[in-house]
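Design a sequence for this backbone.
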């Protein structure tokens, strides 16, 4: 029972971390898009290569 509770807490922390990370990524995307389309494309490629599980 306690192990399940700990796992649930850990999963919640991971989810909230990924959610905040996604917000940062979106802001970076928006900033890069305003700055330069090629830079935006570069970020997109970087995330597809490094973090395919986020898509």
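Sequence:
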């Amino acid at each position: 029972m306690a192990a399940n509770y700990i796992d649930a807490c850990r999963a919640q922390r991971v989810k909230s971390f990924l959610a905040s990370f996604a917000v940062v990524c979106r802001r970076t995307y928006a900033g890069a898009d305003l700055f330069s389309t090629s830079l935006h494309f570069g970020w997109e490629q970087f995330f597809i290569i490094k973090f395919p599980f986020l898509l």
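DSSP finds two helices and no strands in the chain.
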